[in-house]
Specification:
Elements: H1 2-15, E1 24-27, E2 30-34, E3 39-41, E4 43-46, E5 56-63, E6 70-76, E7 79-82, E8 92-94, E9 105-107, E10 116-123, E11 133-140, H2 147-203
Length: about 220
Protein backbone atom coordinates (compact mmCIF):
# COMPACT_ATOMS: atom_id res chain seq x y z
CA UNK A 1 0.00 0.00 0.00
CA UNK A 2 2.78 2.42 0.91
CA UNK A 3 4.56 1.60 -2.33
CA UNK A 4 1.45 2.45 -4.34
CA UNK A 5 1.06 5.78 -2.54
CA UNK A 6 4.72 6.66 -3.17
CA UNK A 7 4.41 5.88 -6.89
CA UNK A 8 1.23 7.94 -7.09
CA UNK A 9 2.97 10.89 -5.43
CA UNK A 10 5.85 10.73 -7.90
CA UNK A 11 3.44 10.67 -10.84
CA UNK A 12 1.46 13.61 -9.51
CA UNK A 13 4.63 15.63 -8.90
CA UNK A 14 5.71 14.96 -12.45
CA UNK A 15 2.38 16.17 -13.79
CA UNK A 16 2.32 19.41 -11.78
CA UNK A 17 3.82 22.19 -13.90
CA UNK A 18 7.16 23.56 -12.78
CA UNK A 19 6.82 26.82 -10.89
CA UNK A 20 8.72 29.89 -12.05
CA UNK A 21 11.31 31.62 -9.93
CA UNK A 22 12.37 35.24 -9.73
CA UNK A 23 14.74 36.74 -12.28
CA UNK A 24 17.02 39.68 -11.43
CA UNK A 25 17.83 42.21 -14.17
CA UNK A 26 20.84 44.53 -14.14
CA UNK A 27 21.58 47.76 -16.00
CA UNK A 28 23.75 50.75 -15.25
CA UNK A 29 22.48 53.61 -13.11
CA UNK A 30 23.39 56.63 -15.24
CA UNK A 31 25.37 57.09 -18.44
CA UNK A 32 26.93 60.22 -19.91
CA UNK A 33 27.73 60.72 -23.58
CA UNK A 34 28.69 63.43 -26.06
CA UNK A 35 26.55 64.77 -28.86
CA UNK A 36 27.22 62.78 -32.03
CA UNK A 37 28.81 59.84 -30.21
CA UNK A 38 27.67 56.24 -29.74
CA UNK A 39 26.94 54.55 -26.43
CA UNK A 40 26.31 50.98 -25.30
CA UNK A 41 23.49 50.39 -22.83
CA UNK A 42 24.10 47.12 -21.01
CA UNK A 43 21.44 44.74 -19.78
CA UNK A 44 21.97 41.34 -18.18
CA UNK A 45 20.09 39.09 -15.80
CA UNK A 46 20.55 36.44 -13.13
CA UNK A 47 18.45 33.30 -13.11
CA UNK A 48 18.75 29.95 -11.36
CA UNK A 49 17.69 28.24 -14.59
CA UNK A 50 19.82 27.44 -17.59
CA UNK A 51 19.53 30.03 -20.34
CA UNK A 52 16.38 29.15 -22.22
CA UNK A 53 16.06 29.11 -26.01
CA UNK A 54 12.98 31.26 -25.46
CA UNK A 55 14.86 34.03 -23.64
CA UNK A 56 13.54 37.52 -24.45
CA UNK A 57 14.77 41.10 -24.00
CA UNK A 58 12.68 44.25 -24.28
CA UNK A 59 13.83 47.89 -24.22
CA UNK A 60 11.59 50.90 -23.74
CA UNK A 61 12.38 54.62 -23.69
CA UNK A 62 10.83 57.52 -21.78
CA UNK A 63 12.09 60.98 -22.81
CA UNK A 64 12.80 63.54 -20.11
CA UNK A 65 9.59 65.34 -19.21
CA UNK A 66 7.34 62.63 -20.66
CA UNK A 67 4.99 60.39 -18.70
CA UNK A 68 4.71 57.44 -21.02
CA UNK A 69 7.35 55.07 -22.34
CA UNK A 70 7.62 53.80 -25.89
CA UNK A 71 8.93 50.42 -27.02
CA UNK A 72 12.13 50.70 -29.07
CA UNK A 73 13.51 47.15 -29.20
CA UNK A 74 12.50 43.54 -28.68
CA UNK A 75 14.42 40.27 -28.91
CA UNK A 76 12.43 37.05 -29.15
CA UNK A 77 12.57 33.74 -30.98
CA UNK A 78 16.30 34.20 -31.59
CA UNK A 79 15.84 37.39 -33.64
CA UNK A 80 16.10 41.13 -32.79
CA UNK A 81 13.36 43.57 -33.74
CA UNK A 82 13.84 47.34 -33.79
CA UNK A 83 10.81 49.61 -33.71
CA UNK A 84 10.53 51.12 -37.19
CA UNK A 85 8.66 54.23 -36.08
CA UNK A 86 10.48 55.30 -32.92
CA UNK A 87 13.23 57.90 -32.50
CA UNK A 88 15.95 55.23 -32.70
CA UNK A 89 14.70 53.28 -35.71
CA UNK A 90 17.86 54.04 -37.72
CA UNK A 91 20.26 54.46 -34.79
CA UNK A 92 19.82 51.34 -32.67
CA UNK A 93 21.83 48.13 -32.98
CA UNK A 94 21.60 44.95 -30.94
CA UNK A 95 25.09 44.07 -29.64
CA UNK A 96 24.17 41.58 -26.92
CA UNK A 97 24.62 37.83 -26.66
CA UNK A 98 21.46 36.13 -25.39
CA UNK A 99 23.30 32.84 -24.83
CA UNK A 100 25.39 34.70 -22.24
CA UNK A 101 22.36 36.52 -20.83
CA UNK A 102 23.41 39.80 -22.45
CA UNK A 103 20.73 42.01 -23.99
CA UNK A 104 22.80 45.15 -24.61
CA UNK A 105 21.99 47.68 -27.31
CA UNK A 106 24.06 50.36 -29.05
CA UNK A 107 22.67 53.85 -29.66
CA UNK A 108 24.34 55.80 -32.45
CA UNK A 109 24.76 59.50 -33.28
CA UNK A 110 23.31 60.79 -30.02
CA UNK A 111 21.54 64.14 -29.74
CA UNK A 112 20.21 66.29 -26.90
CA UNK A 113 16.73 64.96 -27.60
CA UNK A 114 17.87 61.44 -26.61
CA UNK A 115 18.06 62.38 -22.93
CA UNK A 116 15.77 60.13 -20.97
CA UNK A 117 15.30 56.82 -19.16
CA UNK A 118 15.85 53.46 -20.86
CA UNK A 119 14.28 50.37 -19.29
CA UNK A 120 15.29 46.77 -19.95
CA UNK A 121 13.11 43.75 -19.20
CA UNK A 122 14.16 40.11 -19.62
CA UNK A 123 12.47 36.74 -19.40
CA UNK A 124 14.12 33.34 -19.12
CA UNK A 125 11.22 30.85 -19.15
CA UNK A 126 10.11 29.46 -16.82
CA UNK A 127 11.68 32.37 -14.87
CA UNK A 128 9.50 35.24 -15.95
CA UNK A 129 8.87 37.05 -12.67
CA UNK A 130 11.17 39.99 -12.08
CA UNK A 131 11.43 43.76 -11.97
CA UNK A 132 12.71 45.64 -15.01
CA UNK A 133 15.85 47.74 -14.59
CA UNK A 134 16.36 51.31 -15.83
CA UNK A 135 19.32 53.46 -16.79
CA UNK A 136 19.26 57.22 -17.39
CA UNK A 137 21.08 58.71 -20.36
CA UNK A 138 22.42 62.28 -20.29
CA UNK A 139 23.81 63.74 -23.50
CA UNK A 140 26.19 66.73 -23.26
CA UNK A 141 28.30 68.82 -25.56
CA UNK A 142 31.13 68.17 -23.11
CA UNK A 143 30.95 65.33 -20.63
CA UNK A 144 31.10 66.84 -17.09
CA UNK A 145 33.66 65.63 -14.60
CA UNK A 146 31.93 63.28 -12.23
CA UNK A 147 32.16 63.70 -8.48
CA UNK A 148 33.92 60.37 -8.15
CA UNK A 149 36.71 61.51 -10.47
CA UNK A 150 37.19 64.71 -8.47
CA UNK A 151 37.19 62.80 -5.18
CA UNK A 152 39.71 60.32 -6.54
CA UNK A 153 41.98 63.13 -7.74
CA UNK A 154 41.84 64.84 -4.34
CA UNK A 155 42.60 61.61 -2.49
CA UNK A 156 45.48 60.89 -4.86
CA UNK A 157 46.94 64.37 -4.37
CA UNK A 158 46.69 64.11 -0.58
CA UNK A 159 48.35 60.68 -0.56
CA UNK A 160 51.09 61.95 -2.86
CA UNK A 161 51.72 64.91 -0.55
CA UNK A 162 51.91 62.64 2.50
CA UNK A 163 54.42 60.36 0.76
CA UNK A 164 56.52 63.41 -0.20
CA UNK A 165 56.49 64.68 3.40
CA UNK A 166 57.58 61.27 4.72
CA UNK A 167 60.40 61.07 2.16
CA UNK A 168 61.62 64.59 3.04
CA UNK A 169 61.45 63.78 6.77
CA UNK A 170 63.59 60.66 6.48
CA UNK A 171 65.99 62.40 4.09
CA UNK A 172 66.52 65.21 6.61
CA UNK A 173 67.10 62.68 9.38
CA UNK A 174 69.67 60.93 7.22
CA UNK A 175 71.50 64.17 6.40
CA UNK A 176 71.53 65.26 10.05
CA UNK A 177 72.82 61.87 11.19
CA UNK A 178 75.51 61.97 8.52
CA UNK A 179 76.56 65.47 9.57
CA UNK A 180 76.79 64.44 13.23
CA UNK A 181 78.82 61.39 12.29
CA UNK A 182 81.26 63.45 10.20
CA UNK A 183 81.71 65.97 13.03
CA UNK A 184 82.32 63.16 15.49
CA UNK A 185 84.92 61.54 13.24
CA UNK A 186 86.62 64.89 12.65
CA UNK A 187 86.76 65.66 16.40
CA UNK A 188 88.26 62.28 17.25
CA UNK A 189 90.75 62.72 14.44
CA UNK A 190 91.98 66.04 15.81
CA UNK A 191 92.37 64.53 19.30
CA UNK A 192 94.40 61.67 17.90
CA UNK A 193 96.71 63.99 16.00
CA UNK A 194 97.21 66.12 19.14
CA UNK A 195 98.27 63.08 21.17
CA UNK A 196 100.70 61.96 18.47
CA UNK A 197 102.24 65.46 18.30
CA UNK A 198 102.75 65.61 22.07
CA UNK A 199 104.35 62.19 22.03
CA UNK A 200 106.70 63.27 19.24
CA UNK A 201 107.64 66.41 21.12
CA UNK A 202 108.44 64.31 24.20
CA UNK A 203 110.57 61.94 22.16
CA UNK A 204 112.59 64.68 20.47
CA UNK A 205 113.27 66.74 23.59
CA UNK A 206 117.04 67.54 23.58
CA UNK A 207 119.11 65.97 26.39
CA UNK A 208 120.46 68.22 29.16
CA UNK A 209 123.96 69.69 28.58
CA UNK A 210 126.65 68.83 31.18
CA UNK A 211 129.42 71.43 31.64
CA UNK A 212 132.88 70.02 32.34
CA UNK A 213 135.33 72.00 34.52
CA UNK A 214 138.34 73.60 32.83
CA UNK A 215 141.82 72.38 33.87
CA UNK A 216 144.96 74.44 33.59
Amino acid sequence: MLTILALASIVLLGIVPQQSEAIVIYTGWERHALVGSDIRLSCSFFSWRWTSEDVTFSWSYRPDGARDSISIFHYTGGAPYVDNKGPFRDRLEFVGNPARRDGSILLKNLDYGDNGTFTCDAKNPPDIVGRASSVRLLVFEKVPIQAGVITGAIIGAVLGLLVLIVVIYYLMRFLVARRVFNLSVSKHGRKGKGKEGSQQRQLWRPPPVTLLPLTS
